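Moderator note: this is an archived Q&A kept for reference. The question asked for a predicted structure of one protein chain; the sequence and the answer are reproduced below.
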Amino acid sequence: MRQAKRLRTTSIYDAFLMGLAALFAASGFASAQTARTAAYLVRQDFSDCTNQNVPNVNSPLVGGYMWLTRTPDGNTTVKVAMTVEPRTTYHLFLKCVRLLGDITTDDEGVAEVSFTFPTNSVGTVFAFDMYPEGAPLGNKYQSSQIVFK
């Protein structure tokens, strides 16, 4: 039963991500004046500050997706879409730098949020991690490595 629900949720989630990507593109999120990249949120308990060993591939361990934009005003915006544990508050960290904020999922485990931080608070390679308060092993997420050139 749980496997069938996970497969159905994964299919719905994939469709959701494709629609969200189309919406961002249509809304001008992908402007020619900005640098852009994207990353997965992968269920993985630990990694280093830049998540060198976090795979940047879609897999059953992926719980979310991140779109990042560096703008000419000196800020970086990260938009997060995820499907994880229902009715749970996750802390999203700019890894080894600071807390960006909290993300609370709905009854289906879905959340969409956006955060902005000063671009100069990180280098060209950085990462995120996300977990609920007192997270047990298996309920932590690491972003794939973020690289801006």
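Archived answer notes: The two ends are 45 Å apart (CA to CA).
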